[in-house]
Write a structure and sequence with these properties.
Radius of gyration of chain B: 19 Å
CATH architecture of chain A: 4-Layer Sandwich
Radius of gyration of chain A: 20 Å
CATH topology of chain A: Glutamine Phosphoribosylpyrophosphate, subunit 1, domain 1
CATH class of chain B: Alpha Beta
Order of helices and strands of chain A: EEEEEEEHHEEEEHHHEEH
Strand order of the largest sheet of chain B: 8-1-2-9-10
Shape of chain A: globular
Strand content of chain A: 25-35%
Helix content of chain A: 25-40%
GO biological process, one term (chain A): proteasome-mediated ubiquitin-dependent protein catabolic process
Largest sheet of chain A: 8 strands, antiparallel
Distance between the termini of chain A: 59 Å
Strand content of chain B: 15-25%
Function (chain A): Non-catalytic component of the proteasome.
Oligomer: heterodimer
Structural class of chain A: alpha+beta
Number of helices of chain B: 6
Family (chain A): Belongs to the peptidase T1B family.
Helix content of chain B: 25-40%
Subcellular location (chain A): Cytoplasm; Nucleus
Pfam family, one (chain A): Proteasome
Number of strands of chain A: 13
Number of domains of chain B: 1
Number of domains of chain A: 1
CATH topology of chain B: Glutamine Phosphoribosylpyrophosphate, subunit 1, domain 1
CATH architecture of chain B: 4-Layer Sandwich
Number of helices of chain A: 6
Largest interface: A-B, 12 and 11 residues
Largest sheet of chain B: 5 strands, antiparallel
Chain lengths: ~240, ~270
């Protein structure tokens, strides 16, 4: 039970101080999530970084979590809002389990619940500053969807957030197949994460890959990717721009 | 049951631990015309007897669609039944909107039962005077529940409520063990035969009964009169053509005017 002292500053749109009661900008943020459906389920990759503006401040943040028996949630954006969402979902799953009646929330239900939550917050001009990726398997069917902070929601065979949209998805569009094995899926995700590591300044070289199948969820131990910096172009980066202004 | 000094308020216990108002509400269910439900592992059939106030009026609607995968048949105070059906539709659609997924029927009946219980514990309310047979699907297949004015609910393979429902229950008790594996057609046939039992002598016609079906891959819908009549024709032999078998066939017609004689002491608000 959280204990907050209520402050009523009035209408959030007209009164300047009232803004302190709603989200204006994110502070500690996670970068991209990349996720794909594969033969047995869904694979989701993220790094473990939490940036404080341009500082890579936190290096042990798990941005992918299991939800219930059938789903996996990954988030980019404000980490505290992600933690708040995890609390909402915790309550949701708890109430679902309390029924104890053989029915359980699948990934589709969780995705739609989150869509409603995100959209409602957006309508109140107080968004949860996240882009969420929801993947799961239930009754043999794989599910992968995404919700943005303004409530835009859709499903696809492969999704990515933030920089991943620009750097990873083109790779996935070319190389994704429905019958990817686990090893091939991981290789594909690592390829995407390596590009992000090179090009996204908020990415760190410590990632986790989570897998969800009919049997359940496994989140890998954190590991790092091998990188190569000896490209000729890096040796003398300003070779083509000597003395120019 | 006779009047006593503990039956004025629903919030008054009797010395023997009974709430008479709740029991009186359950009596109201027994006065309504019969409603029958049965289920197999994949389908639920709800059927009821159509009773009209008079020959001039149309019959009361007693079976309601709650959602594609849930239907309800009522017996007792139909106004209460209508209001509860609206509540059920509301719960169902709210769930669908939030989760894009059908509300499991087992959860709906618990909400309904909790709502009924509230009325047994407030001095300014009265219990709902209607029994509901709720048929629907959830992840574990087809289910049939009976919701009582007392706030209790029970799951059944087959059940009948309302007036002369005992005759239908006797019929169902003989046959229920085969229902789980019944085909859809056999299930409907059994429902119509159970309805016939409650008519006690009147000829079974499709205009006298309403039948609805729902199942896995089949959304809730009513069977039209033709389909019901065709089914009736398969087992109800027409007396003019089969004189020799009149004894074996379903009870012969006893005149169309025998309808409704025993029901003149039924309150007009109950159907």
């Amino acid at each position: 039970m959280t204990f907050t002292i209520p402050i009523d500053n009035g209408d959030a749109l007209k009164n300047a101080e009232a803004d302190s009661q709603r989200t204006l900008y994110p502070y500690v943020t996670g970068t991209s999530i990349v996720a794909i459906k594969y033969k047995d389920g869904v694979l989701m990759a993220s790094d473990m970084g939490g940036s404080y503006g341009s500082t890579l401040r936190y290096k042990n943040i798990e941005r992918v979590k299991a939800i219930g028996k059938h789903s996996l949630l990954g988030a980019s954006g404000e980490i505290s809002d992600f933690q708040e969402i995890l609390r909402y979902l915790d309550e949701l799953v708890l109430n679902d389990n309390m029924w104890d009646d053989g029915n359980s929330l699948g990934p589709k239900e969780v995705h739609n619940y989150l869509t409603r939550v995100m959209y409602n917050r957006r309508n109140k001009f107080n968004p949860l500053w996240n882009t969420l990726v929801l993947g799961g398997v239930k009754n043999g069917e794989s599910y992968l969807g995404m919700v943005s902070m303004i409530g835009v929601s859709f499903e696809d065979n492969h999704v990515a957030t933030g920089f991943g949209n620009h750097l990873a998805r083109p790779i996935l569009r070319d190389e994704w197949r429905a019958d990817l094995s686990f090893e091939d899926g991981v290789k594909l995700l690592e390829k995407c994460m390596r590009v992000l590591l090179y090009r996204d300044r908020s990415a760190i070289n410590k990632l986790q890959i989570a897998k969800i199948t009919e049997e359940g969820v496994t989140v890998s131990q954190p590991y790092s990717l091998k990188t190569f910096w000896e490209f000729q172009a890096f040796h003398n980066p300003t070779a083509g721009a000597q003395g120019s202004w | 049951m006779f009047r006593n000094q503990y039956d004025t308020d629903v919030t008054t216990w009797s010395p023997t631990g009974r709430l008479f108002q709740v029991e009186y509400a359950m009596e109201a269910v027994k006065q309504g015309s019969a409603a029958i439900g049965l289920r197999s592992s994949s389908h639920v059939v709800l059927a009821c007897v159509n009773k009209a106030q008079s020959e001039l009026s149309s019959h009361q609607k007693k079976i309601f669609k709650v959602d594609d995968h849930i239907g309800v048949a009522i017996a007792g105070l139909t106004a209460d039944g209508r209001v509860l059906s609206r509540y059920m539709r509301s719960e169902s659609i709210n769930h669908s909107f939030t989760y894009e997924s059908p509300l499991p029927v087992g959860r709906l009946v618990v909400h309904l039962a909790d709502k009924a219980q509230v009325c047994t514990q407030r001095s300014w309310k009265r219990p709902y005077g209607v029994g509901l047979l709720v048929g629907g699907l959830d992840e574990s297949g087809a289910h049939l529940y009976y919701n009582c004015p007392s706030g209790n609910y029970f799951e059944y393979q087959a059940f009948a409520i309302g007036s002369r429902s005992q005759a239908a229950k006797t019929y169902l008790e003989r046959r229920f063990e085969s229902f789980a594996d019944s085909s859809r057609e056999d299930l409907i046939k059994d429902a119509i035969l159970a309805v016939r039992e409650t008519l006690q002598g009147e000829t079974l016609k499709s205009s006298l009964c309403t039948v609805s079906v729902l199942g896995v891959g089949e959304p809730f819908h009513f069977l039209d009169q033709e389909a019901i009549q065709k089914m009736i024709d398969t087992f109800e032999k027409v007396p003019e053509e089969e004189e020799g078998e009149a004894e074996v066939a379903a009870p012969a017609e006893q005149g169309g005017g025998a309808d409704g004689l025993g029901d003149q002491d039924v309150a007009p608000m109950e159907m």
